[in-house]
Amino acid sequence: MTLVSDTIFALASAPGKSGVAVVRVSGPNVQNVSKALCGEVPQPRLATLKLIRDSEGVRVDQSLILYFPEGNSFTGEEVLELHTHGSVAVVNRLLRVLGDMPGLRLAEAGEFTRRALENGCMDLAQVEGLSDLIEAETEAQRRQALRVLSGDLGNLAEKWRVDLIRAAALIEATIDFADEEVPVDVTPEVDALLEGVSQELSKQIIGVETAERIRTGFEVAIVGTPNVGKSTLLNAIAGREAAITSEYAGTTRDVIEVRMDLGGLPVTLLDTAGLRETDDHVEGIGIELAKKRAEQADLRVFLVEEGQEPELKALPDDITLTGKADTLDEARGAISGRTGAGVPELISDIQSILSNRTANLGIATRERHRVAMVRATESLAAGQAVLAFGPEQYDIAAEELRTAIRALDSIVGRVDVENLLDEIFSSFCIGK
Asked: In the CATH scheme, what is the code of domain 7-122?
């Protein structure tokens, strides 16, 4: 049963010239809209080629029309899709015709998806997955977003919820019959349920950081002293002149970023200012910024002079190479952005290191999910601790479980998320 709402319309495909443009209409007046445009309501889910006319009978375009009944559409409402020629003039004219119809209005950003949420066609995690899928630029991002959009996270949260409701019911049954002899001790089953959910939550919490990196991108910083070949190496990896190169030290004073797809993973390469002592105020600011970004990066590639050590402390996965291999007699462990020597091997190493980090990838992808799962874990731990004191404390344990359930419900949008909705849907385009 859908919620009563206005009838909305919008361009659902990208604006500008294209072979085909899709205009979507959703709401209770869809059948009237279809009759006004083409004289009839097409058979459900059957593409029909029709002439579209305005209120005066003037032809607007020839279009494929698709009608989706209530309960069988993306929004859960009656939906009409108009697949027109992708001319800017045709689309603008059709939108004006729709805008002149009584009872219709232009959709707000993300309103179609919001209606899908409100009508129970999607949960909040799926909405976030859809947003991520639209923004996906790499294969890893596509796969991850599709898992969330398919409902994997919601299904997992529901499984946890069922287990916790079962545990809470066992505890509350004990409380209800406190004055009678209870034939079965429920503590072992409750402990097993809570321990199982806690372990799965912990696993997902660990995987959120990696999932967020796949969603937003890994950062790889190229770090070293001035004129060691950092900018030339960045250009070689990027395959274009992204950074200015010069024989003069201190050319790079800001952090230069190049976003790339490395083996399906989203990676932003950072070319940082050369690390050295300087009296130049502007260069000094650049050096401090370089140190900060290098420390925050997921991986550092240190370029050093022959026989030198990195200026910053290298972490276990960090890569250290000697720069300007083309000027050295011995090129082992060296790299040259100018000639390309060692560049393919470096790219392979970066891919391998970052791919290994995705081994603990979870289904949860956002900080919001992690916070909710941490809250649930803390409540479960408190509940387990209270259980150890016996039936006298079972009422407190039951309340801790209810708190954990509410935390998990917030992941899929059952509770405590109203203040998030405007922020989430503002990232969607008008036609989604």
From this structure: 3.30.1360.120
